Amino acid sequence: xxxxxxxxxxxxxxxxxxxxxxxxxxxxxxxxxxxxxxxxxxxxxxxxxxxxxxxxxxxxxxxxxxxxxxxxxxxxxxxxxxxxxxxxxxxxxxxxxxxxxxxxxxxxxxxxxxxxxxxxxxxxxxxxxxxxxxxxxxxxxxxxxxxxxxxxxxxxxxxxxxxxxxxxxxxxxxxxxxxxxxxxxxxxxxxxxxxxxxxxxxxxxxxxxxxxxxxxxxxxxxxxxxxxxxxxxxxxxxxxxxxxxxxxxxxxxxxxxxxxxxxxxxxxxxxxxxxxxxxxxxxxxxxxxxxxxxxxxxxxxxxxxxxxxxxxxxxxxxxxxxxxxxxxxxxxxxxxxxxxxxxxxxxxxxxxxxxxxxxxxxxxxxxxxxxxxxxxxxxxxxxxxxxxxxxxxxxxxxxxxxxxxxxxxxxxxxxxxxxxxxxxxxxxxxxxxxxxxxxxxxxxxxxxxxxxxxxxxxxxxxxxxxxxxxxxxxxxxxxxxxxxxxxxxxxxxxxxxxxxxxxxxxxxxxxxxxxxxxxxxxxxxxxxxxxxxxxxxxxxxxx
Length: 543
What we know:
The chain is of the alpha/beta class. Helix content is 48%, strand content 13%.
């Protein structure tokens, strides 16, 4: 007969605690480092004692997990998670996880207790061979929780001890961790010595180029590639900002303190500060150039022969401005007024004549290019951000394991460098200038208006506006060929290049074709559209 209360079962709250009375179990073994896994019998011993315990208790072993080196500081462990997933999905109910000791299960304190409680809800308990506890009673569960908390406390003590030792080493001027690019470790009379290697001697040029010529990171990258050295742009920035190269140690462990290092210096402190645009009291004694309307092409125009930037000067004899290559023995020297004429001639190649008939067609073609080029930009950015997040997690994890002495320095340096290179490459992709614009129609309209008067606008602008305009149209600068007396472009902003080519197409004998718009659509190739709204001169309105 059905009980009267059973009619109210659908209104019951909560769930009955799951109790598994079976004897099935899994065994989990682990060590903290690869050296422990390779060079001692700890894993074998753990497994053997766990099997003996299971045999004594009458447990049926369903599976083995671990058997390798995994940090127990965090619970993001491959084998550990495989075990939890196996228990959850296994068709045969599992009632026990057998470990050699509680700290083999986890050393993450409160989080380990949480995992233990979640397992309990599935009817699974943790049994330690060397620290047995009756988890069916509240006192037994308290005992096990205390053991997990003490494992976490022991981890913190280890970390504090390790960090204290590392801080003391840094305060003595001794570097810890991975060496920056350009350095090697040597042992001299049993003592560690950090020296500059052959690559480091070449990297010294980065600081000299930045301090003396003020060139961009892209230009530095290009020059290094010509010497067979490939470095990401972000990596160049890291090198320039790392005081290790001038003999100064900076580390998070020092908590904001700066220490003089014992290693070999790559550059002087004065050169490092100059390369980072820190001119306290002008310590290097170098001359700071004042912007001059007479020489706007300095640090923009390069000598075709030696590929160094032209510098500007004023001749004492005739009081006229000149451009001259700074390379000793190079005869590249040109009167500024004449070189400006050559530059304006090159600008003329990108000046277009606009009218009411062609402008709508030009705008539509440019919009087509923009939309095709930017269709996948957002998706790509999300992918890079996701990759960067994962790599940063891995870097934090590997640094934590090294600090906790769960990883040898050799293994740490190998994988830390690999992950940093991967992070730098992803960051470089994220830092690339975005082609997207909040109002592409307006940006295209500004670009077309600007393209109609590039030469006259540059000629009538002041020093800063000229530099912004010339760098906008020719992002990598230009070269001057003294022998043939001509300026040559390295790379042209694709927006203005596309405008000029489309207008030439419209003017090239097809302007009377009634289907010129269809022909143009077939001709247009997917091209990058670079930003134009950042240029100051383009904000002028000359009707």
